[in-house]
Amino acid sequence: MSQPSRPSAVRRWAIAGLAAILVAAGAAVIALPQLGRTPGTPGSPGAPVDVPGDGDGNLALRPTGDDAPISSPIAISFGRDVPHAAIAQGFSITPAAEGQLSWQGNTLVFRPAYPGLARGTAYQVSVRLPEDVAAAVGAPANPLTYQFTTAGKLAVASTSPEADSTEVGFDVPLMVSFNRPVAPLTTLTSTATPLLKLDPPVEGEGRWLNSTIYQFTPASGWAPSTTYRVTVPRTVSDTLGGQLGEDATWSFATAGPAVTDTSPRDNAQYVGPQGEVRVTFNLPVDRAAAEAAFRLSPAAAGTFSWPDSRTMVFRPSAPYQPATRYSASVAVSPASSKLTTWSFTTVGAPAVAKPRRI
Hints:
Blueprint: H1 6-31, E1 60-62, E2 74-77, H2 84-89, E3 91-94, E4 99-104, E5 107-112, E6 122-127, H3 131-137, E7 144-149, E8 156-160, E9 165-168, E10 174-178, E11 197-199, E12 204-208, E13 213-218, E14 227-232, E15 248-254, E16 259-263, E17 268-271, E18 277-281, H4 287-292, E19 295-297, E20 302-308, E21 311-316, E22 325-330, E23 340-346
């Protein structure tokens, strides 16, 4: 029987030695104390966490306040030697969050699983301590409890028209801007599912201009002299699942009938002896009411005509007084408080010019 070659034997010894090392290493890993861990969140302890007060005998907590990053580790430093296993078992966070517990010296660290804690959410951290530890670290209560709120609560950042706007144009689109992305990029090229509730209801089309700005355009324009109430439901959520939490509501009012142009213009000069006065409205008005609300001073008799539903024309029956300043005023009706006034000056009477010497 042939003997194995030396190189083959060396390889077997090397493999056997490596296996022994791996077994020993595995035993060492198994022998390490197992720290508390929330379900389904494997991972390494991560980078060291800087906690003020660690090692100086004082209790220190992090994060605090109302704007904690969603990926921020939760760290409780005891500032002295404490029983790690007993304290880790007493840790809890409400509302529940997945993550990993580990110890960094005498600091208990909870690292939330990706993508982090919920945005704009108030969390309560609680740790039940052994009585001697609670007394030694000066815990104000046992269990030790504190709260913080994560940053980034979804909110309506701005609207157009703004809240309580008046005299809004009939064809102005309604726009809502959020502080965080709401629409996935894949939806930007398609007509969006209606996001807003309008009272009174309005037919129209909504679309996302980008992931944070939504635009609604009324199909037939806004109704005149109408107050609209807009609601963004509290169930609207951002791309990471954070919701508004409460309805966002505001109102705006559209413009009523108004004068948009006059001819002659205000302070016009040299108006002809029988020049017509033309008034243009922003929308169709009651013709009889507009004619009754028209005034000219000095008074002048004349007739009215309507080339279209928005344009009223007054033609004097007799020539205006020459070189005279006339004041005109008009409203959509005699009872309207929106009075438009302007003036013009007529051309002077013809005169013989003095001859000039050449």
